[in-house]
């Protein structure tokens, strides 16, 4: 068992009969979805909302019943990966481009469990490029305003030589902050920038972090039991 698998499988222990579950995106969330699928196969009764088209496909593959957002007011639990986790459980997410749906699902869940291999734990956020989701209309102006304001390298994410397009039809700009001194302030400021839809800073959202290690051990850190 690898570190991501250990964390993903451990998180599935919090999923109980009758719950509505948010399914994250990425290679760590993959293992949680796989395990939950196995539990559903053995009779667990849940409904789920996926944070990306890719995770929705996985849920279908593993036989996890999906529910429309119109039928749900709140989720019981959401389980998702992260690119960086600091000691206050603030996160950088969005390496896989799903940050907007991930944040929507996380903030509408009674419990948000982050699953991460130990390499994601950092003393200060910012080593990983911060993904910022921006609208395609006049995106060059939004990019320019961000570069002017923060004076750090910010580049448009590309895939196959084209601008990367999110599941929501937006673009992503990746910002190399290096060190983020005040994640809360930056989060608020970015959110106030016209043209920015959302960004990958998740501050005061995570309830629990499950850290996975290469030897298969896990460590549970958190505000909630
Ligand atoms: O935020 C995400 C996707 O938008 C992922 O959760 C994050 O990038 C971590 O991915 P992985 O588990 O593959 O390392």
UniProtKB/TrEMBL annotation:
Keywords: Isomerase. It catalyses: aldehydo-D-ribose 5-phosphate = D-ribulose 5-phosphate. Gene3D superfamilies: 3.30.70.260, 3.40.50.1360. The active site is at 102 (proton acceptor). Belongs to the ribose 5-phosphate isomerase family. Catalyzes the reversible conversion of ribose-5-phosphate to ribulose 5-phosphate. This is Ribose-5-phosphate isomerase A. It comes from Paenibacillus faecis.
């Amino acid at each position: 068992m690898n570190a991501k698998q250990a964390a993903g499988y451990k998180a599935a222990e919090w999923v109980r009969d009758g719950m509505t579950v948010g399914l994250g995106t990425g290679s760590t969330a993959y293992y949680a979805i796989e395990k939950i699928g196995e539990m559903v196969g053995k009779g667990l009764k849940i409904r789920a909302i996926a944070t990306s088209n890719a995770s929705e496909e996985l849920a279908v593959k593993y036989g996890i019943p999906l529910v429309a957002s119109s039928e749900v007011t709140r989720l019981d639990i959401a389980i998702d990966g992260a690119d960086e986790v600091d000691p206050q459980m603030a996160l950088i997410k969005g390496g896989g481009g799903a940050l907007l749906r991930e944040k929507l699902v996380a903030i509408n869940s009674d419990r948000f469990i982050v699953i991460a291999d130990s390499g994601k734990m950092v003393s200060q956020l910012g080593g990983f490029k911060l993904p910022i989701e921006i609208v395609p209309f006049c995106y060059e102006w939004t990019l320019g305003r961000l570069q002017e304001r923060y004076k750090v390298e910010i580049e448009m994410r590309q895939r196959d030589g084209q601008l990367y397009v999110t599941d929501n039809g937006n673009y992503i700009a990746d910002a190399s902050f290096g060190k983020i001194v005040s994640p809360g302030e930056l989060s608020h400021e970015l959110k106030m920038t016209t043209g920015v839809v959302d960004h990958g800073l998740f501050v005061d959202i995570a309830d629990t972090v499950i850290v996975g290690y290469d030897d298969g051990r896990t460590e549970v850190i958190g505000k909630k039991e």
